[in-house]
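Weekly puzzle thread! Below is a chain. First person to post its structure in token form gets bragging rights.
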Amino acid sequence: MKRELTDDVVNRAREEVREWMRARPDVTAADIAQYTTLSDGTVRAWISGSFPGGHQVVDGILSAIQKAKAGDILAPGGHESVTLLVDDRKRVRKVQQTGKFYETQTARRIGEVLDYCAEHAAIGVATANFGVGC
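Winning reply:
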């Protein structure tokens, strides 16, 4: 079996990632892995040098790092979040019932959060004022 990448190429890429991670101590291998097709264990092993990696590993990790450097992902100051704003001034005049389920604006918003989380493999938190219910 032939090696896909030379040790020199892999080591330069690994050092670039390590240098960036030293500048960003808030980012872990698991954070990088979520923007690749790799597991966090694979990313951690590759960064530590215990896994040589091929094109898929090196290209995936470097792609995530380039996106992070550009500010597209892993922005400094914490993890990304999505805020859905609700206009509480509008009164609901009629609530549609589907079977035994009443589809309210709150239920629709919760559904949007759940859909977003499912599409982006993310954890979502839905909050509201007391008494809003769902």
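Puzzle host: Confirmed. Bonus trivia for everyone else. Residues 81-134 form one domain.
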